[in-house]
Structure formats: C-alpha cells, structure tokens
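Z., the sequence and structure:
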Amino acid sequence: MVPKEPTGAERMRALALQLPHQLRDGFRAGLESVATIPADASSVALFGMGGSAIAGDLAATLTDPETELSLRVIRSPELPRSLHRGGHALIASYSGNTWETLHAYDEAGRRGIPRVVLTSGGALAERAAEDDVPCVVVPAGGPPRAWVGFVLGGVLGLLDPAFPESNEDRIGQAVEILEKRIAGYASRRGPPSRWAAQLKGREPAIYTETGFAGLARRWKTQLEENAKRGASFDVVPELFHNAVVGWDAISAAAAAQHAVVQLEWSEAPATTAARFGYLARLLGDRKVTAIRVPLSAPDRLVALVTGVSLGDFFSLAVAEQAHVDPYPVDAITRMKTSLERTADRAVPRATAPAPRAGARASRP
C-alpha cells in the first residue's frame, strides 16, 4: 500500500515539534563557525525578510538587556548610511534567492562590511562561496518560518562572544525544558488549542512588553501565514500612550470582532504586570475578548523559546479550527511571480557605480 501523503497541517506540526532540536543544532553551527562575531563588536545588522528576519528580532530579546552589542534587523534591500566597516552584517535568506537580501549582500560587500551568511542554498550560498564569505548552512525542507529555531540558534551562536558568559549550557537547559513541554503545547487539548477556541473569528492584536517585541511579531506573522488571518502587534508601555484610547472608545459591535492576546513574562517588573492587569480590566469592561498567555520562566531565553512554541501551535490550532491549510502561502508566491515580470528582477550582482566627474568621494 502506498503511504498516505501527510497533510499541510501534519507537516507544519511535525516541523513545529523540531524547535528544540533546531535551536540546539543551530547554536552549535553558529558557535563552531569560523565567523563568530568578535567579543568587542559594537554593532551587528541582520538583513532578511519574513521568516528569515524574525530570528534577529528574537535574538535581540537577549542581546539588548544582556550585552553591549547593538543588534538591529533591517527588512530592506537598502543599507542605512550609518552602517560602515565598524559593523558586521548577518545576511539571512532561507531560500538564498530573496532579491532584497541579495541586494543587501552585494551592497555590504561594496562597503567593505564583514559579512556572514545564513542560508540553505540558492544564489546567496553561491555568492558566499565565490567571495569566501563564511556561511552557516540551514537545513533545507519546509517553509522559512518553520526553521526559525535553527536560525535563532545560529545567530545566538555567532553572537555568543558578546555575552558575559557563553550561552552553551543555557541553550542546553532551554532545549531540555522545551522538550518536556512541547508535547503539551501540541496537544489538541493543550493551552494553544484552548486559546484558539476563545479567538473564534475575531481579529487578534498581540501585546507584550517591549523586551519581547520580537516574540509578539512572531505570533502575528504566524497567524498571518499559518492561519491566513489578519493580525497586529504592539508593546507595553507604548500602547498606553495611543492604543488604549481606541480600546476605551470601542463600540459593542466592534468589540465583538476583536481579541487581544497578552504575552506576559512572569519576571516582568511590577509596573509592567500592573499595566497588563489594567488593560485586561479595561478590555473586560468593553467586552473585548482578552487571552492572557503566561510566559512562566525565570530565564529570559526559556520564556522566549517556549513563547515561540506556544505561538506556533496557537496559529496552527487557529488554522485547524477554521479548516485552513497552514502550509501554503499562495499570496506570496503570486506576488513573487508578478514581480518577476518587472524591473525588480534586477538580482544580478550589482557593481559599484562609477563616480561622477568632480563628485566628492564617499566615505567608507
């Protein structure tokens, strides 16, 4: 008998279950790379789009409070003028064929900025090999968003010297904890499925504290790609200076169409916890569905990776309950096909433009 092909939902669930192993393997690959970023590096820019960029946002959850390194994520083919040879560029493209990322790779090379590539292959891997640029190889198979664990681990491995102590043991502990919890997250009776049932057809807004902004973005994009559901994200305390006005004035009809998911770290300052409590009371008074998700872990890394896993299975449960196939992203495929017919296909290797006569030399 010919084995039955797994459904899109089954494939995505199987990939989501690999998160702890991806994190461990990615960290090892980054740590063992010849391109490990030096301990005295002051700034690193990660260039990428979509599922390849989010690992940078997640890594900043640790680098911002624990290191002196400035890590910024740039979702654009254009390099900021402020990025120069004193910084380092991480170029992340799962497929290796994202034109925005290829453009950034070339521009960083022209400026003499040290580069490291994270990819599973494609034109980016070829260019890195030609230019003798170090490459952390991401395993192939599945959509880019399903390999966030490996890319996050790889980024943390590359940046390990920036931390006061190596994160190697810490990664191992996080993997061990996640391995124990992930089956419960994946269960159709687990918390993510219960939260998905509360969401029903409402449009979700994902809220968390500033330090976990990357995690809130991940929940948003997973809902968009897996569940094919519009979503938004915001952070505390900023949302109390704008978004709270909208919630305070919301009509009963509009309230029935929205839900708020609050990602609340157990170790957050008392002021942050008080703000989340105030928000929950306000939403309750306005009859807006509020789903409070506890990130219960004393270690920021454990809270982060368990939060990623909870969000992945939440989005898959939302898709399943709405009878949506989480695997394909046809809208992105159509967009890429359409743009291939335009001048945006200019992916060939860019060359430095000749200086105009009398023009002032650019700074390195």
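The beta strands are 43-47, 70-74, 88-93, 115-119, 135-137, 203-209, 232-236, 258-265, 289-295. Residues 187-321 form a domain with the Rossmann fold fold (CATH 3.40.50.10490).

Let me know what you think.
H.
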